[in-house]
Amino acid sequence: MPLGSAAPTGLVDLRIDGDRIAAVGPSLERLPGEDELDATGRWLIPGLWDQHTHLGQWSRQGTRLDLAGSTTRAEAIARVRAGLGAPGEVLVGGGFRPSSWAEAPTTSALDEVSEDRPIVLVSGDAHSGWLNSAALRRFGLAPRDGLLREAEWFDLLPAVLAAEDAQVGPSAYAAAMQAAAARGVVGIVDYEFEPGFARWPQRYRQVGVGLRVRTSTYPVDLEQAIAAGLHTGDVIDGEPLLTMGALKIISDGSLNTQTAHCREPYADGAHGVQNAPAPELARLLGRAKECGLKIALHAIGDAALQIALDAFATTGARGSIEHAQLAGPDQVAEIARLGLTASVQPAHLLDDRGVTEVIWDEARAARSFPLRELAEAGVELALGSDAPVAPLDPWLAMAAAVHRGEPEDVPWHPEHSLTTAQVLAASTDGHGTPIAGAPADLVLLEADPLADGDSASVAVRLRAMPVAATMVAGQIVHQAW
């Protein structure tokens, strides 16, 4: 497929030598001893990446109690009560979005379900946790009757994940990564709440699914990563497909938790939460830059985004703005001027479009997810899911960016939509039309992803895109025929 440069017309052959493409041509001669995969006229694209995941939590989605779609606290409580029979010491669930509930999620409400078994429920945006008293005791927290939010919640998450690991094991990672390969994913950027650079080497060997993994560090483990001599792009522990990524910083909150740091106030007069004050943010960016680490900086609200941009400008650090969900024209221009990547998650708007106009008002809704504006300003876009907030499925992200809604919906602010060619190019980690010398990270499709159509029909086609085969570093990791 033509991505960034023209593609040959008609059928072509590719020769793979090790982990690279050796040649591309209309009729390459098969050499003695070469294996051959007959693609029979399928469409070839570069391998897809999910540029923002929390892979541990996504891997556990099949074992967590599903609270997605709960429209009231009572409905969520009923699901928890019905799920008490699930095995394990700690009952973990996820997906609830309480911003429109009449009754707030409280500890006492969960205590009515169980006073003895620890219950931990992760919000749909992953920025808060709902615990019963038994869970508060289990994890050494003081009594309370409300949600844990932002920094306090993120500090707890590693312990919750460790408890889940003891109950689930590495097979959950293997299943999640194999499912990703079946959707054409060759690489995953993991921002799980752990020192990934230390945890992934053993895990990678245990999982045994040969996808590329770009791991990360958070500020709490930054000095450990620096002491290990790791720079962005380094191979970790001799595993060529496992590399060091960025320092991840969560500078503000989220829309649904009403903690995204905004210039204009919420209905209660608050402006959200700035998890990383400006001086600390500048210190972290400067430290990472001097030690060879890029930055992945979460900024959803426009106030947080401005603080982030000021820190990048002051320090000269490089990297990405993660989410960039609410950005003004001046900020879009500044992202472009600084050469930052906008790492965006279009499928979030499927959940956020309704609540945005309630929480942020129509004026801010009109400049939410400004994907086209970013692209037209020359900002490099990198699409991801933020799984488990949205499914780890690049075709869903692409469809949401093109149509900005469910296929049956009227597009939400279609002036911000992208073309199919743009979303595909933003999903391949910067790799364009397959050429000699490029990595042999490739995907064969049963249908033309760039076929014409209105945005709704394109969204339907992308969501159902049949992936015939996925290859990583010259090795087939998924084949459907």
Number of helices: 17
N- to C-terminal distance: 21 Å
Would you identify the CATH H-level superfamily of the largest domain? Answer: Metal-dependent hydrolases
CATH class of the largest domain: Alpha Beta
The number of E-state strands comes to 20
Query: Domains counted in the coordinates: how many?
Result: 2
Oligomeric assembly: single chain
Major pleated sheet: 9 strands, mixed
In round numbers, the mean pLDDT is 95
Shape: globular
What would you say the CATH architecture of the largest domain is? Answer: Alpha-Beta Barrel
Uncertain segments are none
What does this protein structure show overall?
The chain is of the alpha/beta class and 481 residues long. The protein has two domains: 48-56 and 170-479, Alpha-Beta Barrel (TIM Barrel); 58-168, Roll (Diaminopimelate Epimerase, Chain A, domain 1), CATH 3.10.310.70. Helix content is 33%, strand content 21%. It has 17 helices and 20 strands. The protein has helices at residues 55-59, 73-82, 107-111, 133-138, 150-168, 171-181, 196-207, 222-227, 278-290, 302-315, 329-338, 348-359, 361-365, 371-376, 394-403, 420-425, 455-463, and strands spanning 13-17, 20-25, 43-46, 48-53, 65-66, 91-96, 119-123, 128-131, 148-149, 185-190, 212-217, 235-236, 239-250, 295-299, 319-323, 341-344, 380-383, 442-445, 467-472, 475-479. Strands 4, 10, 11, 12, 13, 14, 15, 16 and 17 form a nine-stranded mixed beta sheet that branches. Strands 5-6-7-8-9 form a five-stranded mixed beta sheet, with helices on both faces. Strands 3-18-19-20 form a four-stranded antiparallel beta sheet, with no helix packed on it. Helix 9 (278-290) crosses helix 10, helix 10 (302-315) packs parallel to helix 11 and helix 15 (394-403) packs antiparallel against helix 17. The radius of gyration is 22 Å and the shape is globular. The two termini are 21 Å apart. The model has no long low-confidence stretch (mean pLDDT 95).
